[in-house]
Specification:
It is a single chain. By secondary structure, the chain is mainly α. The chain has one domain: Arc Repressor Mutant, subunit A (Orthogonal Bundle). The chain is built from six helices and two strands; from the N terminus they run αααββααα. Strands 1-2 form a two-stranded antiparallel ribbon. A hairpin with a 5-residue loop joins strand 1 and strand 2. The longest helix has 21 residues. The C terminus is likely disordered.
């Protein structure tokens, strides 16, 4: 599966915000950009998309930055995808030709499976999986 750079950065930014998700800790744009090694100019555009979807809250000013718009366990990868790259969730198959309808149904089934999987992965579950990472030397 090919994930756009915009979607990858959005997920990484949301993971950074989820790590500090006490509802009060504001994370500055430049801190997220530095921790995730992404362009701050590109990241601000992505965070604006996430803000419009009510996934993040932005605070202006010298002490401004971003925090999650909801609890980490209430934000799924589906929500993030839908906010920044909804084309991933759609199907472009047509029903043309003799086999078109069958092929369209197959792709719709794949899409439904993907959507359900994305809905079941929350920021909270992502971060908890990261804590179980085993390092071998």
């Amino acid at each position: 599966m090919r994930v756009s750079q915009k979607l990858e950065y959005a997920c990484r930014a949301m993971a950074q915000l989820a790590k500090r998700a006490d509802g009060q800790t504001i994370t500055r744009l430049d801190e997220i950009a530095q921790r995730e090694d992404v362009s701050a100019n590109f990241l601000v555009q992505i965070l604006n998309d996430l803000r419009r979807a009510d996934l993040v809250i932005s605070k202006r000013g010298k002490l401004g930055g971003y925090l999650l718009g909801r609890k980490a366990e209430e934000i799924s990868l589906y929500d993030i995808v839908n906010a920044v790259d909804p084309s991933v969730l759609g199907s472009s198959a047509t029903t043309d030709g003799e086999s078109g309808e069958l092929i369209r149904q197959a792709w719709d089934n794949v899409g439904n499976t993907l959507n359900n999987a994305l809905k079941n992965i929350t920021l909270d579950t992502l971060l908890s999986q990261g804590n179980n990472t085993m390092f071998y030397i």
